[in-house]
Structure formats: structure tokens, C-alpha cells
Amino acid sequence: MITRLLPVPGTAALFIAALAITTNVSAAQAATPHFRSSQGQLVLRLHNADGRVQSESVTPLAAASTVVCDAALENPHYSGGAESVIFKTRVTCSGNGLSIVQVRIRGTLGSICGAPPRGGPAQGPLVLRATSDQIQNVTVNGGFTTYYTPMAGPGNPKVRGSGWYQGDVSGKIVGPPGIVSDDPPRAFSNRVWVNDPR
Q1: Of 6, 50, 91, 162, which is the most exposed, with the fewest CB atoms less than 10 Å away?
Q2: What domain range is 30 assigned to?
Q3: 3-state percent helix, strand, coil for the chain, nearest multiple of 5
Q4: For the segment 166-179, what is each residue's pLDDT rounded down to a tens digit?
């Protein structure tokens, strides 16, 4: 006798369980992650500079598309090419049903300038040095897309001076058209000493 498993309505999270998201997935559902309902979702996970998932945003979709995007935040550093202290956020997306999604990443870069590098990260509030707000197309099942804070190009400020720096980002998937999602909590880099060689 052959037993046939049927998809269970309302189990859109099953496919995502195979991509290491296990929230609200029972043991029985996780045993059959290749079955899912006709409802899909877009997920954006924000990773801090240590690689851990710090927050995520989930947007339900009426269609069966399921796309998971990971935004990995790097620590601030001095870039000789940009002649500025910068940090990068690299976004990759994987899934099915969509070939491209639009991802919006907002970043801020702050510093405590003049604090000595010895004794660990300087404490106290950061002074805002640069912001960024970018929407870019990210190819699903393709390479990464890089977001810069501060943004590259003429007219954008350069951040100069040795000191303790920290970056943070928030993000959401804003396309294809009709996508509505709230900004998740921010993801933070480590507070690191950056030496400006100039």
C-alpha cells in the first residue's frame, strides 16, 4: 500500500524550515519541509558583524514565491579607494518564484573620535558621522549586492579621523510592487578602532 502525503493548508513556514528558520514549526511539519501551501513569504534576516542573526522581517505573499534574503553587516574600516571610513552590508537572496527582489538598506556610521585605542572599546554615545539609504535589485539565487555607508559617489561625505566606530543597519524587502513590510530592529557592527592613515 502506498501512502500519499498531502500539503497541509497554512504551512507556508515548512519550506523556510529547510533554510534554518524554525520558529513556529512543529516536529511533524519539520519532517516534511518539501510540502507547503500556496501561500509564500519574503524574509529578510539581518546579521550582526559576528555573523549571528540579530533580527528578521517576514512579509506574507499571496503567491507561492518564497525568498529569504540575508543582510550581513561588516565592521567599519578605512578604505583607501574611498579615502574614508566605511562599512559594507552584503545582501544575498535565495528561493523560488521570483528572479529579482528590491531590498532597501538604511545605514548609520557613528564614532567616538580621539579616544585612545588601548583598554577596549570606548564607552559613551556615538557621534553620527554618515547615513545611507539605498534600494537595489538583488538577484535571487545569484551573487551578493553591496550597500555602502557612507554611499559611494560624488557629493557623499567622507568620514575621516582615527577613533572607535560602529555601524548599524535596518532593512526591508520593498519590491516587487505591492510588498508592504515594517522595518525590523537594527543590526549592529562591533565597536572597533579604525586608524585613519592620513
Answers
A1: 6
A2: 1-37
A3: 5, 45, 50
A4: 999 999 999 888 78
